[in-house]
Amino acid sequence: MIMARSQILTPCLKHILIHLEPEDVARCAQVSRFWRDACYSDSLWRRFCDRRWKYWKSKPKKADGWRQIFIARQTTDRWAFEILDELAAGGPYYLSNMKKLRQLGDNCREILLWVMDNPNEQFPSNFN
User: Fold this and answer.
1) Where are the domains of the chain?
2) 28-43 confidence digits (pLDDT tens)
3) What gap in Å lies between CA 90 and CA 39, rounded to an integer?
């Protein structure tokens, strides 16, 4: 039985991609259709999600696709950081911002825990 070149290369490429940052993998997906298929692999994005987040408001639905779940959760993190920045600045919308943060719920737990452990540091770039 003869194996197609893509059947041999895809597992090797995925093994390399898992060691990159998700943002770099998204750039690699622009190389070709073959690279895009490897870069959009559900198993790859699930590992990115598992590596970055431990707490979930609700268990993600596989039907959404792990890449889409990653993008949605990253957007939630970005919103949480914006709200925390406004709270830290002491603006006039304190209660409104607290309500927004509460609506994000457990999905921003990693961010809040990190801020509590590192009160004098800038937010890490891998969160947003």
Assistant:
1) 1-40, 54-121
2) 999 999 999 999 999 9
3) 42
CB atoms within 10 A of CB 31: 11
In CATH, what number does 1-40 get?
Answer: 1.20.1280
3-class secondary structure, 112: helix
State pLDDT tens for residues 76-119: 888 888 888 888 788 788 888 888 888 877 777 777 777 777 77
| Distance separating alpha carbons of residues 6 and 3, to the nearest angstrom | 8
- pLDDT score of 3 more than 60: no
Which residues neighbour 36 within 8 Å (Cβ) at sequence distance 6 or greater? 29, 30
Q: How far apart are CA 127 and CA 8, in angstroms?
A: 34
Retrieve residue 71's tokens: 């993008």
Which amino acid, residue 86? E
The owner of tokens 């509460």 is 102
Q: 98 and 87 in contact (C-beta within 8 Å)?
A: yes
